[in-house]
Predict the 3D structure of the following.
Amino acid sequence: MDDKLMEMKKEYDNIPIPEELDFVVRQAIKQGMNQQMKNKKNHKKLPKKLTAGVAAAALFFVVGVNTSEPFAASVKDVPVIGSLAKVVSFREFKEEDKTYKADIKVPALQGLENTEFEASLNKKYMVEAQAQFEAFKEDMKYVESVGGGHIGVEGGYEVKTDNDQILAIERYEISTSNGYSARQFDTIDKKNELLISLPSLFKDENYIYNISNNIIDQMIANYKKDSSNYYWVAGIVEKPEEVSFVKIDRNQSFYINNEGKLVICFDKYEVAPGAMGALEFIIPTEVIKDDLESNTYFK
Amino acid sequence: MNKTDLGTNIADFVMQNKEKYYRLAYQYVQNRDDALDVVHDAINKAFSNMNSLKNPEYIRTWFYRIVVNTALDLLRKRKKLIVIDDEILSNLDTGMVDKYENVDLNTAINALPEQYRSVLILRYFEDLKLDDIAEILNEKVSTVKTRLYKALQILRIDMIEEVNK
């Protein structure tokens, strides 16, 4: 028996260590440290200096539809001026080597009346993509310095919604080597040419709780249906220290879909094990209707 | 100790012990990509739940627990985890052993129900004390002992079978 155990232990000790391990661990630590610096709640992966500038530029357009009563009321009557707006591929950052691969596509908006607004968004997308590419080059340098290895990053965008009223764009970044991924969303009101922020849709902060409770209900229902749908939420995980979703951030990622429903988005690892991937929850309008500032966008 | 120090502590600890935890993860999930995923997920969880580490001295058992739980999460997701109750298990002791002939030792361990597998791996492969294992698995020491005994019992039968062949 002891011999058998020794043999098993030997087999265990001989489990080969893949060369990527070091890189995967460093990446995870880097993410962890970054997250810690940015204070757990802020999930945005953009560098600080860049968000501040972009936020300032975008702020001007966000203040709006729902803050002034007459403005909101007039929305329905505005003729469709923004419907020419569309998304095009602007440019692509590429790096192609045997072991290092980067492919980052940058979206750009065209056809908005308000060219200043259009330019500010396009600039944001460009800066984001550049930051991703820079980060990739940094990683490449690091990997090279420790003797080489495989790394890859893919960036791109997807138009989630495009109708008379709403244009929603997702930008994503996926590491093809360690499974890390992050997404950003913009929901644009085409008629009024403004960027919709989550808090701007609601009268007060009550939406945070109503939406969060609905998401938790959905998670538990999914889990009950099939226990492989696993989320780090109270009611599913056994130990309190494993709970990582309590409520959404007031600026949680979101978009409005083609059916006029609010969709709340989470990055991979944000609320569930990595195997669950990035997650989206469609919030029934019933759940938020009392909190909404106006009914303009939702059905 | 403030949060940044704790973060640095975790980072250092993980860097120093990464191979150990990779092997542990691998023993559960049995393939390289999933094992890397488990290590990655576990580090992520360690940072986002660092408040649950009351005393930095316990970092070792604390991180073991995270890795084991993360690996089990993944297996759950992959549906390789078969929950076996005690009755079926006692059947395993007697009749169902030849199911494992022609398989290597690690496969025999993986065929063990999760609760037995964890104690066996932690005790014999990671050389941990029963107290520590109890802490990691959040069980009483006596429970760990019982499971370990049971695990050995199951495997012994298994292996005699293999020897006799």
Summary: Chain A is about 35% helix and 25% strand. Chain A has a mean pLDDT of 79.
